[in-house]
Structure of Histidine--tRNA ligase:
Amino acid sequence: MLTKRPRGTNDFLPEDTCKWQYVENLLREICHEFGYEEIRTPIFEETELFLRGVGDTTDIVQKEMYTFEDAGGRSVTLRPENTASAVRAYVENKMAYRSQPTKLFYIGPMFRYERPQAGRFRQFHQFGVECFGAASPAADAEIITLAWEFYHRLGLQNLELNLNSVGCPECRPAYRKALQDFLRPNLDKLCDSCRERFDKNPLRILDCKNPECQQYLVGAPTTLDALCDDCREHFNAVNKYLDAVGIPYKINERLVRGLDYYTNTAFEILLSDIGAQSAVCGGGRYNRLVEEIGGKSTPGVGFALGMERVFNALASQGIELPAGRKVDVFVAALDAEAGEESFRLTTELRRQGLAAAQDVMGRSLKAQFKYADKFAAAYTLIVGGDELARGAVQLRDMAAGEQQEVAIADVVSLICAKFHK
Ligand code: HAM
């Protein structure tokens, strides 16, 4: 029996990967414009990193991690997200001693043992950015602008930026208590997971999707009401920067993120077109995380966006991406004797930087032409027969439908000239 791919994972075939490359190139281009440089961290880390980084009361740590013991008896985990790893790499590689801020981006697979559904996978891909060392609200606004710019350049419409502040260790304890006091009279009516969160992480109750729980949240105190002066000033400044560049946002006082490390700004970009898993991007500030992971106290802010959800969104809005790169020349061998010369010419064209295709299946000339159709090459080179004996080949311009005899000695430079190579 055929072994199938694991549930919640995908195979991306060539017709998909050319789209992924287009989107990844766009992201790299935008990162360059915004001064973000790429970091690549291991796919697995010591489990301890995520317990400390993501937080042990989160769904990710409690239910969703791919954790196993390696042959050396160490507990390791496939990364469920990349912020904790980026922080570890920042601390371990002493990046704080470089000129600050440190602005990093990453693209790669993440792993969460979730219930697979449209837009939710067990292996999925994130693009994300992390900015270390900048406490200013301009850094928050800059990463939001970067995300917005990306969706805008892809031509996506109907995006909704939701913004909130979850406060800081100064103002959050009082808010937490106010929220618990508000909810306590109805505690026994809340769903199981909300009751569980009540002591450990009551803020998460705010984004419970259960309509029953929602009903008991009406009139609940908001994080914004409870912000200390510094947090309020920071939040207002982020809003002003976004206003200055014309990025619309909705203040959503119920927005709390599913990871424990956030302080101050929390944001998500939503797109209702793609169904229930509408969050295409999420992030915020995490001023305590670097210290938590063993570094000096350092502010940080970042986001990650789900790549699969970008492709869902493009499909649902009917946006086509440019097709993959074309083949420049197809080289056909008229007969078996021409094989070596056509192989040599194909290689020579490739050495000059052209995309050249040839048959490697021993096909007849007729079958080679049929095969060549799939490449839609601009030129076809026909090698063999009397021409070959004369030291020449036939060169066919496919668009013009014209064919000419060219000396083998000249043909590569002639084709290169047509492609300005
Ligand atoms: P997150 O909200 O858990 O944040 O994930 C960010 C994005 O990844 C989501 O908005 C969604 O688009 C995508 N995503 C998450 N889980 C899945 C899944 N199972 N299948 C498909 N897509 C998914 C983080 O991961 C934080 N590290 C973001 C961050 C960076 N905060 C600060 N810096």
The two ends are 50 Å apart (CA to CA). The mean pLDDT is 95. The chain has 15 helices and 16 strands.
